[in-house]
């Protein structure tokens, strides 16, 4: 299956989540030249549809697709809330042996969340139309055959050290500008550093510059 054929088939496809999820996944495997669950040579105990999993809440559920050591995959219908799908996968993660990748998909959008131990989380987002791009297909290919390729470079520990250093630098800047120590401490305590796809945005910098 070519990227153009895949995109044409699944753009604005009217099938429901239940009707389409397996077919969509099998077509994706064809596009990426990867075996699908239950293909010859695959182990149904390690790679399957509808993997039974107990949620952290204690109730039972199923991951739509699971591959041991690679990913848990959850489908939603077109334009449904993929955040809810990700939250659902997180509840299954322990029962799924903590796969390094958690993937959510509404057939027209893919979100690959990294889930490596002691590593910051990163999200790779791919739209249906992006599949004509070789680099985007390479990300999805890695989901199946090389999850380590998608591992973020920084550990949680190293990131924590960097964050602490940046807070200290920001606090010093405020003191240098004449802000009282108590005011500075209160401001720093209220400051939040955002981490999105491995990039840091220090939201307070603009605020500091505006009020200096």
Task: Explain this structure.
There is one protein chain. By secondary structure, the chain is an alpha+beta fold. Helices cover 41% and strands 21% of the residues. The protein has two domains: 3-150, tt1808, chain A, CATH 3.90.1570; 156-211, no CATH class. The strands form two sheets. The chain has a six-stranded mixed beta sheet, with helices on both faces. Strands 7-8 form a two-stranded antiparallel sheet. Helix 5 (156-176) runs antiparallel to helix 6 (181-190). It is elongated. The model is unreliable at 192-212 (pLDDT under 50).
Short description:
This protein is of the alpha+beta class and about 210 residues long.
CATH class of the largest domain: Alpha Beta
Straight-line N-to-C gap: 58 Å
Annotated CATH architecture of the largest domain: Alpha-Beta Complex
Structural class label? alpha+beta
Domain module tally: 2
Cα shape: elongated
Strand content: 15-25%
Strand order of the largest sheet: 1-2-3-4-5-6
Largest sheet geometry: 6 strands, mixed
Percent helix, as a range, is 40-55%
Series of H and E elements? HHEEEHEEEHHHEEH
* Separate helix tally: 7
Can you give the mean pLDDT? 84
> Which regions are unreliable across 5 or more consecutive residues at pLDDT < 50?
192-212
What CATH calls the topology of the largest domain is tt1808, chain A
Radius of gyration: 21 Å
The number of strands is 8
């Amino acid at each position: 299956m070519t990227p153009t054929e895949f995109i044409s088939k699944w753009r604005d496809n009217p099938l429901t989540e239940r009707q389409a999820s397996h077919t969509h996944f099998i077509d994706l495997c064809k596009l990426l030249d990867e075996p699908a669950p239950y293909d010859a040579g695959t182990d149904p105990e390690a790679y399957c549809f509808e993997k039974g999993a107990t949620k952290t809440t204690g109730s039972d559920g199923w991951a739509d697709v699971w591959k041991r050591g690679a990913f848990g995959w959850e489908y939603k219908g077109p334009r449904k809330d993929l955040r809810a799908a990700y939250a659902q996968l997180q509840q299954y993660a322990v029962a799924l042996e903590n796969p390094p990748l958690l993937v959510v998909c509404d057939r027209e959008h893919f979100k690959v969340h990294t889930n490596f131990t002691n590593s910051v989380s990163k999200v790779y987002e791919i739209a249906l139309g992006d599949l004509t791009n070789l680099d985007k297909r390479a990300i999805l290919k890695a989901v199946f055959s090389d999850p380590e390729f998608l591992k973020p470079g920084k550990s949680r520990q190293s990131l924590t050290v960097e964050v602490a250093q940046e807070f200290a630098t920001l606090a010093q800047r405020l003191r240098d500008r004449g802000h009282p120590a108590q005011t500075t401490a209160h401001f720093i305590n209220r400051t939040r550093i955002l981490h999105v796809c491995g990039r840091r945005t220090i939201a307070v910098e603009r605020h500091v510059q505006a009020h200096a």
